[in-house]
């Protein structure tokens, strides 16, 4: 059986960038605060769009957003913001851009007390939730946990972090294992735990 023939979650297309994302990243427990911050920013930019759009632009996002270093993003001037809003390589949305800068500040404020990873993973007691969904229609758009995380992040100054956006981040970061049980990645991801830092 070739890699292309492996059973995967039904949302994966034949696009190699999607296959690689699904097979190597989606659902893998991620305890790296910097990478989780990036996921929150990108999920915010994804709101209302397809994730494949973000994946195709992700490398350019990383380049023009200074590797998602919050210390740099928080200092963005209006000139820098205007340049970003003129860049077709990213999602050009003023509200989402302003949210990214605001989230950088919130991230830095949080980091003075605890890591973003510790805060997020505490909501699932540091262990990925192992779901056993058989069909895509069984997977929720949000959960009580994503609602609670959304509320907590908003209270700490984050924006564009609604319950649906947060649940998508939780899936991507492996806080929940939402690979279908028929998917070749379900059991592999079920054996993994995060290195929280």
Helices and strands, with pairings:
Elements: H1 16-24, H2 33-46, H3 51-64, H4 70-73, H5 78-85, H6 94-111, H7 116-122, E1 129-130, H8 144-155, H9 163-172, E2 176-177, H10 186-190
Parallel strand pairs: 1-2
Helix pairs in contact: 2-3, 2-6, 2-9, 8-9
Task: Give an overview in words.
The protein has 197 residues and is mostly helical. The protein has a single domain, classed as Endonuclease III, domain 1, CATH 1.10.340. 51% of the residues lie in helices and 2% in strands. The chain has a two-stranded parallel ribbon. The protein starts with 15 loop residues before the first helix and ends in a 7-residue tail after the last helix. The model has no long low-confidence stretch (mean pLDDT 96).
Shape category:
globular
Are there runs of 5+ residues with pLDDT below 50, and where? none
Alpha carbon gap, first and last residue: 38 Å
The CATH level-2 architecture is identified as: Orthogonal Bundle
Name its key features.
mainly alpha; globular; 197 residues
Short description:
The protein has 197 residues and is mainly alpha-helical. It contains 10 helices and 2 strands; from the N terminus they run αααααααβααβα.
